[in-house]
């Protein structure tokens, strides 16, 4: 089959690799129909990956059609359209069955496309372990792009909002307006935020946030603007969707007393200093982590079906998988309004 392989910094190649095989009776093979590039994929693209491997297939966001199932697969059928969770669990322990794959009791939580351990989703075919749990039928009434956003981006944004404990009437700041940040803006308003400040360097992304109903701000001066708008009370909560030290510091600076800061941007800095005296005086809450995708599906699917959330609106490019190297380049350079990049087999 053809797939996008990581061969080194800024070196993504469309090449042939072996077709995936069933490795367990509970596995399924899915023919990819649409896959996405995530912001966290850029860490790999830049050469700051999560393993020393080379030549592995990248990507962890995909929807497709089941083409083969193991004897232990009971819920999925050949020919069925499915969406695939970006990270997988054993699908058998109590934590996984509750949707919390991060706490898999059998220590089988892993993510597609970080190494040869579990090859990625930017490929013509994908092996899905414990498929009855780690994939789900395409929800009724959803488009393929809406389902694709449910494989990672939208649950991650929702996880960030939940970590920030958004309450009706809250003043919320979202720092970083890539697809996840913009979905957090929309989600914060759905959760009843009274006002959302959306902070990013890129004017086009600020414009999208403003169209959603947010107050769009450049990072320079954002703290002063929020202070004036809130009469010094600052934001109740902040969601940070980049993972860079500078943007985390902005998130910490724009919340007030009892402020909640939720970081979902991937950060590979080994050390990060927080002014503990300021945190103590403010009574700050700080959370950082990655979401368990299936845990959020029961809440998010009805919100999309009911027209409350529109994650597909952030898709800006659709390209064939064979143009994957160019898709990565455009996304990394933020050229041509690149936001959410979708590739087709």
- Spatial extent as radius of gyration: 20 Å
The CATH superfamily of the largest domain is: Medium-chain alcohol dehydrogenases, catalytic domain
Briefly note the structural class of the backbone: alpha/beta
Give the number of DSSP strands. 18
CATH class annotation of the largest domain: Alpha Beta
Given as residue ranges, the uncertain stretches (5+ residues, pLDDT < 50) are none
Count of helical regions:
12
CATH topology of the largest domain, anyone? Quinone Oxidoreductase, Chain A, domain 1
Which geometry do the CA atoms define? globular
Euclidean distance between termini CA atoms: 11 Å
Strand content: 25-35%
Give the second-level CATH assignment, the architecture of the largest domain: Alpha-Beta Complex
How many structural domains can be distinguished in the coordinates? 2
Helical content stands at 25-40%
Biggest sheet architecture: 7 strands, mixed
Order of helices and strands: EEEHEEEEHEEHEHHEHEHEHEHEHEHEHE
What would your notes on this structure say?
The protein is an alpha/beta fold. The protein has two domains: 172 residues, Medium-chain alcohol dehydrogenases, catalytic domain (Quinone Oxidoreductase, Chain A, domain 1, Alpha-Beta Complex); 135 residues, NAD(P)-binding Rossmann-like Domain (Rossmann fold, 3-Layer(aba) Sandwich). The protein is 29% helix and 26% strand. Strands 3, 5, 6, 9, 10, 17 and 18 form a seven-stranded mixed β-sheet that branches. A six-stranded parallel β-sheet has the order 13-12-11-14-15-16, with helices on both faces. Strands 2-1-4 form a three-stranded antiparallel β-sheet, with helices on one face. α5 packs across α6 and α5 packs across α11. The longest helix is centred in the last third of the chain and has 13 residues.
């Amino acid at each position: 089959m053809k797939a996008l392989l990581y061969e080194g910094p800024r070196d993504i190649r469309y090449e042939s690799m072996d077709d995936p095989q069933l490795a367990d009776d509970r596995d399924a093979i899915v023919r990819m129909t649409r896959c996405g590039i995530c912001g966290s994929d850029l860490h790999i693209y830049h050469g700051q990956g999560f393993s020393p491997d080379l030549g592995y297939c990248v990507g962890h966001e995909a929807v497709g059609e089941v083409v083969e199932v193991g004897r232990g697969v009971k819920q999925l059928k050949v020919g069925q359209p499915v969406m695939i969770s970006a990270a997988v669990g054993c699908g058998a322990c109590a934590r996984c069955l509750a949707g919390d794959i991060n706490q898999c009791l059998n220590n089988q939580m892993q993510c597609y496309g970080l190494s040869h351990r579990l090859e990625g989703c930017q490929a013509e075919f994908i092996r899905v372990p414990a498929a009855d749990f780690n994939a789900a039928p395409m929800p009724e009434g959803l488009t393929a792009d809406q389902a694709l956003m449910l494989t990672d981006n939208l649950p991650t944004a929702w996880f960030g909002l939940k970590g920030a404990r958004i309450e009706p009437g809250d003043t919320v700041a979202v720092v970083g307006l890539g697809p996840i940040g913009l979905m957090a803006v929309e989600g914060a308003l759905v959760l009843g935020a009274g006002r959302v400040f959306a902070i990013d360097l890129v004017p086009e992304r600020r414009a999208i946030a403003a169209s959603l109903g947010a107050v769009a701000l450049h990072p320079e001066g954002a703290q002063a603007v929020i202070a004036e708008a809130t009469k010094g009370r600052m934001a109740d909560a902040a969601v940070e969707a980049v993972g860079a030290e500078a943007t985390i510091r902005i998130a910490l600076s724009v919340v007030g007393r009892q402020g909640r800061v939720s970081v979902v941007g991937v950060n590979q800095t080994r050390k990060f200093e927080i002014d503990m005296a300021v945190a103590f005086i403010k009574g700050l809450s700080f959370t950082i982590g990655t979401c368990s995708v299936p845990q959020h599906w029961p809440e998010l699917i009805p919100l999309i079906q009911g027209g409350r959330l529109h994650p597909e609106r952030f898709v800006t490019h659709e390209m064939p998988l064979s143009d994957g190297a160019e898709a990565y380049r455009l996304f990394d350079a933020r050229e041509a309004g690149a936001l959410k990049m979708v590739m087709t087999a």
